[in-house]
Amino acid sequence: MEIKREQILGEGFTVPCVSIIPEDAVGAAVVIHGYGGSKEEQLGLAWRLALCGAATFAVDIRGHGENLHILDGDALNDLETIIEYAGEFGKVAAVGHSMGGRMALVSSAEYRLGISPSLGTTFHEGIHEVMGKKRSYRVKEP
Fold first, then answer.
1. Using CA atoms, how far apart are residues 60 and 67, in angstroms rounded to an integer?
2. How many domains does the chain contain in total?
3. 28-32 and 14-21: which strand pairing?
4. Where are the beta strands (DSSP E) in 1-142?
């Protein structure tokens, strides 16, 4: 396995990721964290997918971890950039948790899996309050 930190180049931006590439990779998986998360929190899942033979990319979506951009409407561009990059290994699966699950489900990946995806277009005020207290300190927002 080859494991490395990368900055994947998009159009005018970069996406930080950890790639885990098996010797004979067949297909690829992009692993997306939830709100307030980071790629490092998803390394266990990424490792397991790589053991199954997929070239795996755990990413920091904008506003999170090492991604220097604020969380905004262009966050899906980060994911699409990685999906395109991962396509060199064959078909791509997007696997995400919570906010990342929602992004995976609306992505252009050939296979999409949302783990506890946030599906509502609006959320109860109590959810906003809890997220604000528990996770927002880890997010770069406007």
1. 6
2. 1
3. unpaired
4. 2-9, 14-21, 28-32, 55-59, 92-97, 111-115
How far is it, in rounded angstroms, from Cα 1 to Cα 114?
A: 26
Q: For residue 25, give the nearest of 1, 43, 3 by alpha carbon.
A: 1
**The domain containing residue 104 runs over which residues?**
2-138
Q: How far is CA 70 from the centre of its chain?
A: 15
| Run of H or E residues at 105 | helix 99-106
Measured distance CA(21)–CA(105) in Å, rounded? 24
pLDDT tens over the chain, length 142 residues? 999 999 999 999 999 999 999 999 999 999 999 988 999 999 999 999 999 999 999 999 999 999 989 888 888 999 999 999 999 999 999 999 988 999 999 999 999 999 988 766 555 555 555 555 555 656 766 6
Question: Which CATH number covers residue 134?
Answer: 3.40.50.1820
> In whole angstroms, what is the distance from residue 6 CA to residue 10 CA?
12
Buried/exposed code over 94-111 (b: 16+ C-beta within 10 A; e: otherwise): bbbbbbbbbbbbebebee
